[in-house]
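WARN no homologs supplied; continuing
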Amino acid sequence: MPITETAGAVERPRFVSGSLLRHVCVMAGTGAIGLIAVFAVDLINLFYISLLGEKATAAAVGFAGVVGFFHASLCIGLTIGIAAVVSHTVGAGRTGDARRIATASLVLMAALSVVAGSGTAIFLHSALHALGAEGETARLAQRYLSVTVHTLPLLGIGMASSALLRSVGDARRSMVVTLAAAFVTAVLDPILIFGFGLGLDGAAISAVVSRMVLAAIGLHGVLVKHRMLGRFEPSRLGGDARALAGVAGPAVLTNLATPVGAAFVTHAVAQFGPSAVAGAATIDRLTPVAFGLVYALSGAVGPILAQNLGAGQYRRVQEGLRDSLLFMVASVAVAWLVLALGQGVLIRAFSADGLAAQLISLFCSWLAPSFFFAGGLFVANASFNNLGHPLLSTAFNWGRATLGTIPFAWWGSHHGAAGVLIGQAVGSSIFGLLAVVVAFRLAAKLARQEAPDAASAPAPVLDAPVAPASALATPQAGAATGPAASAAGP
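OK structure emitted
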């Protein structure tokens, strides 16, 4: 839905009417395709690198992936704030504010990703050593990252543009943005890695080109197709930044918890050798592709809940949470079945043997069901931020990454590399279950605030409003106003 006005009125937001389950299915389905495409870039890289038959190179990709995971989590956290604030503003009918905030969000994304990306280059050697990378593996990982870290702004702008497209309900175009980038990787990887004999350097170059395509197509959709960007107003940047930070700040902290936990797990697995690291790296890249629908739910649920909260339809917020969890359960069940039946094909495809093959088989057969609880945490995080409790999502994610990972993985490490992964799955499941229980209680409390006549419903009490009144322009005549809300991610 373009942000346009017709005959002086703002077009009705897409998600405040109609079947919520259908909205969830469409947004999550198209979002999953796009998200899978983003993570497929790393999976494709690992697949072609594994064909070289060099365990040190495959392990290097695994260590580099942990560092890249920190970068991606930062960008995802920022896009959560962007999608939340813009979706809520669109839902409330404040078209001019939505355009201005969209412009400010791209400026802030570019600035922060430059600092985070290029700043990492200074600490690459120390970071890789802390993760357990040594010798040739560490050297290869550092060489790969020295190319890719400086292109983080391209990744950030592409992801932000995709989030802006989702915020107005254009799930299809948001999907195309990431699909195109994955297609470029799939084509360039074999050409550069094998055709030109560049090996790991070819994979790095392919990743850079893919990010350039991601940013270009995303900006085209935002600028040309939807005309979502307004004039950049430096005087308003501080207020808009505070509005975005109300969600993006906790969301970034929330998302950084996951790579922190992953870093500890990688360090624990590294003591069992390059084969174990290669197996864990394969699982790490396979997981978001296999469970793409579950990962996409966090981004899909956000705009749906935010628009309904902005329109004062609080019961639909509760129903949206319920339908999202039903969709998640069905998605995990199907993915688990596919992984269990196809594990042999996966092991052969990634040239895994020994300990690496054992870990992949363990994941496909027994650890994949833990995503019933991980998916519940993703959906719960989306509801926490949309219900004005972003710090709850931060607390649960960090709880999972620390109390739910470190002691369990440490205990498991005494029983081998497989024990590390089993311990991680057990701890994650406990925190996922707790988060779902809390999310349902908060949604029920909010639903009770809705009056029989939605127009007369009282404003919900939020712990952390996203956009203070001083940060927004005067609403347009006749536009609905409401409390700011937010969306969450994994």
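Residues 55-91 form the longest helix (37 residues).
OK
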